[in-house]
Amino acid sequence: MKPLLIETQQGLGDNIYHRAFVKSMTLLYDVYLRTPFMQVYEDLPVKFVKPISQLRTQQKNIVKSEGKYKYHDLPPHTPAIQPRYTGTQLQTMSMIDGLSAAYHCAPTKFDLQKFKSTNTNSFAPCN
Questions:
Q1: What is the pLDDT tens value at each position of the chain, 127 positions in all?
Q2: Beta strands in the chain (DSSP E)
Q3: Which of 29, 37, 64, 104 is at 20 to 30 A from 48, Cα to Cα?
């Protein structure tokens, strides 16, 4: 398969929506992915590229994730896409339709992998 670099949007919520499209793209391409939220995609057959962000929360997640993911160099001449939906699109279509137009494909099933459960017994009850 041909390589393709996908540079996702920076928000966690956006990345949850991007996941279904990235999964579709893995059926067509050898996907290299630049995202500040690698956790969202860790069960997909993608190769992570070192993320870059100027946003505080995203930078904190990138630092917290160091050493957990292997970063790959891009093959020479790898095409790149930065799929986005726009405010103008959202006036006439859904976010999913906007991303479908940006990716030029339909999403797969919207899902998330199962994360390790946390021990909620250590939290104080809400009052």
A1: 999 999 999 999 999 999 999 999 999 999 999 999 999 999 999 999 999 999 999 999 999 999 999 999 999 999 999 999 888 989 999 999 999 999 999 999 999 988 766 665 655 556 5
A2: 3-7, 30-34, 47-48, 80-81
A3: 104
Q: What is the Cα–Cα distance from 90 to 14, expressed in whole angstroms?
A: 14
Spatial CA neighbour of 51 closest among 1, 6, 2, 102: 6
Q: Could you tell me the pTM of the whole model?
A: 0.86
CA distance 56 to 111: 27
Domain regions of the chain by residue span: 3-114
Token pair listed for 21: 């499209």
Rounded distance between C-alpha atoms, residue 59 and residue 61, angstroms: 5
Nearest to 84 by CA among 21, 2, 3, 4: 21
Do the bridges between strand 80-81 and strand 3-7 make them parallel or antiparallel, or are there none, so unpaired?
Answer: parallel
Tokens of 49: 């590229």
